[in-house]
Amino acid sequence: MAEKLLEVRNLTTGFLTEKGFVKATDRISINIEKGKTLCLVGESGSGKSVTSLSIMRLIDYAGGVILEGNINFKGQDLAAKKQEELKEIRGNQISMIFQDPMSALNPVFTVGEQIAESLRLHQNKNKDEAWKEAVELLRMVGIPSPEIRAKQYPNQLSGGMCQRVVIAIALAAKPELLIADEPTTALDVTVQAQILELLQDLKEKLGTSILLITHDMGVAAEMADHIAVMYAGAIVEQGTVEEIFANPSHPYTVGLLQSIPGFEGERGGELYTIKGTIPGLGNLPQGCRFNPRCPHVMDKCRQVEPGDIQIGAEHKTKCWLYEDQAKVAAAGKGEHIHG
Amino acid sequence: MSDLNTATAPNVQNTDPVVTGNAPLPPTGKPPGPWKIVWQKFSRNPFAMTGLVVLLIFIFVAVFAKFIAPFDPAKIDLMTANLKPGVDGHWLGTDELGRDIFSRLVHSSQVSLLIGFSVAIIAVFLGSILGAISGYFGGWIDTVLMRLIDVMISLPSLFINILVMAIFGTKLLYLILILALTSWTGVARLVRGQFLQLREMQYVEAARATGVSHSGIIFRHLLRNASFPIIVNATLMVGGAILSESGLSYLGLGIQMPATSWGLMLSNSQEFMLTNPMQAVYPGLCILIVVLAVNFIGDGIRDALDPRQKNTRRRLAKWRKNFSKSGI
Amino acid sequence: MTEYLIRRLLQSILVIFLVSIAAFGLMHAAPGGPTQMMISPGLSPETAAVQKHNLGLDKPVPTQYVIWLKNMLKGDMGNTFKNNTPVGDLIWPAVKNTLALMSFSWVISLLIAIPWGIYNSTREYGISDQSANFITYLGFAMPAFWFGIILQEFFSIKMDWLPLSDMYSMEKHGDLGNLFMHLILPSTVLILVNLAGYVKYSRSSMLEVLEQDYIRTARAKGVPERKVIFRHALRNALIPIITVIGMDLASLVAGATLTEKVFNWPGMGRLFVDMALAREYTVLMAITMITAVAVVLGNLIADILYKLVDPRVQLGRKGGKA
Fold first, then answer.
1. Whole-prediction pTM value?
2. Which residue of A202, B125, B131, C242 is surrounded by the most CB atoms within 10 Å?
3. ipTM of the complex
4. How do beta strands A316-317 and A234-240 pair?
């Protein structure tokens, strides 16, 4: 295994609502290795964004609270830090890009100013140097005539260009980890591919690790080294991209794969959909959280929530179907079953 | 799918389950209606409930003023002028003309509440009709009405009230009418906005095509979408009208003797500041309390309608310190 | 921008024109309107007719309106009925006095309200926020003139610390220190009323901005919280605040009727009430027109300011797509 850059352990984030605390993420554990990409996949409402905001500790400003767990980044627990202590890390060692590029940029500053600000904060550059480098960054993310664009306001740029600007801001300080929260969802289809390609290029050029959040298995297949599938606040399956695609285990993952157009599960032109909808996090079912929608549901699923079951080298799933396999694996390799 | 659609998304996280607030419905039984939900939230708001109780007390006093007031509020008796509180059964004393201050306060509540509520009702009626006409017909009618509103709000309403009352004379009816005429614009805009929204919606076309009555759609849509904002607007109008009445009466352009109102009581009081300073305190306090009560009710309804949950935010601010791992 | 300005200017002129028609029509619809006011009572019908003719009151109302409008445009606002003093001699000093009172209290209100509102937006439901909330409720529910009376009773009559009313004490006309003492009480009333609106508005404007995505981006960039508030959020939050402030510009000229009346301040508001009670129609029409112009001008300034501070509006929509 490669060196771990980020190690999230049992992260539980809650929100206060009318009905009391609701857990948006439930004991999430993920690892991101140096120079690799982890894709966090799931439907909207599954808690992917909350996970990313928690890692950045921006969740504090969105009304959420980290209830338990650790976010270990290069030996420091981000979950236990105070906001003031995080400014050296945020935007410098960990950066983030967002879903909606048009609203992610401040409308009253030029895009050049917004990139330069990041450079001045983290690299002690003076105004002129920062501006010059901001223009260079714009060039790097593929914006034509960057000298002119730098002086423009976000509303004068298209959505795709705005996202490139947001990426430029995120990369300004050459972070070790880039968190991209649905970076292409708000963009036109043609632009989506370009942005993904740009991210891939930059990752290879700069050696940045990426946590990519997406609802699109296709995107994950293209970008990921590892995949974590999230459902209703929990990671239900994770493993390397090969493991997940060659041997999808959790019925939810299987459903997600089958609902990709053109994937093997497609029958007679009819697109597969997972029946039912994701439950509200306030009223999760008893037992396995997927049981009301699961085609293989058993009695046990309705009563006891499954823990992580190791079914491959890096492949884990939370599903009772693999209980026996786990026992075999545990006996064979002496690995622990996470619970 | 273009940039324009997504440019204004205001939420912190679009995909976040809690913020989008798809609160799960109870698994069984009928979901509670909008009125019930609003009432549930409203009744949990201590300020709003206090306001409601206080307003009900004032309404009770106004309705039974005759029986509650121990003296005739208009009876002038210079022999008993400027009595101290408590003397001869005058709980709050008498004014410079020997009138019982408490009885005047009690009877004044009639005027204030009558004006407050009738102004709000007339203004809502007027505003709804004009807003509906404007929004339904559009075109030049809309333009004319909107310009009319521009003109109306280009002058302070107190200004218009003074002008009209001075020119046409100080009758109670005129007072009510002019206060209503200067407060309908908000409701008109609201209703007009709803109509414009209605026009954009495709289901109206669909409903029309299937032969559902046109007025039926409009009415149901308005009832569902505009009724609560209008109620909030109307509640605040009640308070505004009471304040305006008091101001006009203070200036001598509102309620006239021998009738009585809190504002009128205040206009006399200033002359007798030296001899009887409390005479100025009581009527003002009454106005303050009634208007506060009405505003609390209005705010209570608005908060009950607001999905953002003020109270939750308030509690969160307190609790976060205890729950957060890092303590922020 | 120029095209917009011209359109906006034309709109303003139209509104003022409509106000002038409304004002003129209202006065002439009044029972005992100008016609009766101007004719000396007790005249024989013949002499009254001559007087009417001399004053131009026998002409049809639209003609009278045109004559009046022409005179107004020339700056001739007519004379009062009672003493035949030129209306301008009454109005311009009143405008000056009102400006003194209103701008004093207005500037103080803004200096307190905006920083306070911003502070409260960062400490929602803290002590400071709750006190501002309390003041807001008071300011909206209390008859301001009553507050004035209470202040007078306490600070002038009971304690004798401050002058009861008027702008200057006797024989101290023009003395700035004396003016300041007279300003304190009425300004306190006006500041309370202004604070109620402004603190609430700047707080909610700021809160709305703080929830925007670009604030999250700034935090994600590692911008320190102070800079997030004062650099990233404030500039955006000020845009709507400036608009509201611009709309209130007119009150600097129009005055605060009730407060001026309570404190016997010789400004526009008091003049207006006095003239309304005396039915001095020429003065009323003149004040109406001046107020309307002030309001429309204030809105225009607010609009232009809005366009100047917000690049989104200033540059139009042409950059929406590439």
1. 0.81
2. B131
3. 0.86
4. antiparallel
